Amino acid sequence: MPYHDDNHCLTGLGGRRIHYGQPPGRNTSRRQFLTAFAAFGACTVLPAWQTPAASPKPHLIDTPVSSDGTAPFFRYIVRKKGTVELGQSSCGQCHIRVLPGGGVLKGAQGNFNLNRAVSDRNRARFAQSSYPTQVLAALRLSFRAQWAAPWLSPDPLARIDQMSFEELEAANEARPAGVMSRHRTSLFYPVQVPDLIGVKNRQYLDRTGLQQHRSIADLMRYAARNRGAFVGGDALASHNGFVPADPPNFRKLPDPYWIGP
Fold first, then answer.
1. Quick check: is 15 in a domain?
2. Is 20 among the domain residues?
3. Where are the alpha helices (DSSP H) in the chain?
4. What is the DSSP letter of 193?
5. Contact assessment for residue 41 and residue 91, using Cβ atoms and an 8 Å cutoff
6. pLDDT tens profile 20-49
7. How crowded is residue 163: how many other Cβ atoms within 10 Å of its Cβ?
8. Which residue from 40, 6, 35 is spatially nearest to 222, judged by alpha carbons?
9. Phi and psi torsions of 105, nearest 5°
10. Residue 157 in contact with residue 149, Cβ under 8 Å?
11. Has residue 185 been placed in a domain?
């Protein structure tokens, strides 16, 4: 499994190499599994929102708050004196649920509205950009990498080329909390975020069975690699020649030594 260091829960994200330890095998004890799962579900993985303009606005997206007044989906990170970063994209961001009474249930179907948070960030970037046309082109390219199915004719995602930025973000925001467009699904046909309760006994991970689950090694490998189209497991995929990690051509596989951009 990936080792921890002082700056990243999973060494290897953001362009660094992932180092795997000895796979623990199938006969893992409950204590070992729970220890690994705690890191999988709660650690902050990718501190990406670092500027006020790009930061999500929890009060605008109805972020659920626990009884102690905190939003359990995020962590503050201090890697440099005088700089506070908002860590996001941990597994817990999709798999933590705040209950009506303020309790926190880890491993459940999450109720943080990640879709609205991403849309909020996209709108801030679009509004502040001097090149809105390029921002729109980059957004379409990102959507294509995640959800295009060029082996179908017509590709169900082809209509995004005729949609404006506002129309794309409206579709983005239309997905409620607990529903997400996973790799190779669609902006228009999202899937339910699965709960992780009982995941030890499941043979495949992700709602669409994206990866085999044979041991904790597979679970932690999934956590480390499942970072999206460009920095995750799908970045190493080739769908009959369609390579999500190679925009705009989508033809060449990246060097597997690196998973970052």
1. no
2. no
3. 30-42, 92-95, 114-128, 132-147, 165-173, 216-225
4. P
5. yes
6. 333 444 555 666 666 655 554 444 444 444
7. 17
8. 40
9. -115, 105
10. yes
11. yes
DSSP letter (8 states) at residue 230:
T
Helix, strand, or coil here: 63? coil
Residue 6: what pLDDT? 34
Residue 217 pLDDT > 90 = no
Predicted local confidence at residue 25, as pLDDT: 45
Angle subtended by helix axes 132-147 and 114-128, to nearest 10: 150
**The predicted structure's pLDDT at residue 205:** 85
115 lies in which domain range? 30-236
The CA-atom distances, in angstroms, between 208 and each of 8, 162, 176 are: 28, 28, 19
Does 68 map to a domain?
Answer: yes
What is the 8-class DSSP label of residue 188? Answer: S
Q: Residues near 158 by Cβ (< 8 Å), separated by ≥ 6?
A: none
Residue 192 β-bridge partners: 179
Tally of domains in the chain: 1
What pLDDT, on a 0 to 100 scale, did the predictor assign at position 120? Answer: 86
pLDDT tens per residue across span 47-88: 444 444 444 555 455 789 899 988 888 877 787 888 877 776
Pairing status of strand 191-192 against strand 204-205 = unpaired
Token pair of 119 as six digits:
């849309």
Report the DSSP beta bridge partners of residue 88.
Answer: 46
- Nearest Cα neighbor of 44 from 75, 71, 65, 4 is 75
Burial zone of 63 (CB within 10 Å; 0-12 exposed, 13-18 middle, 19+ buried): buried
C-alpha atoms less than 13 angstroms from C-alpha of 44 in its C-beta half-sphere: 19
Higher pLDDT, 151 or 167: 167
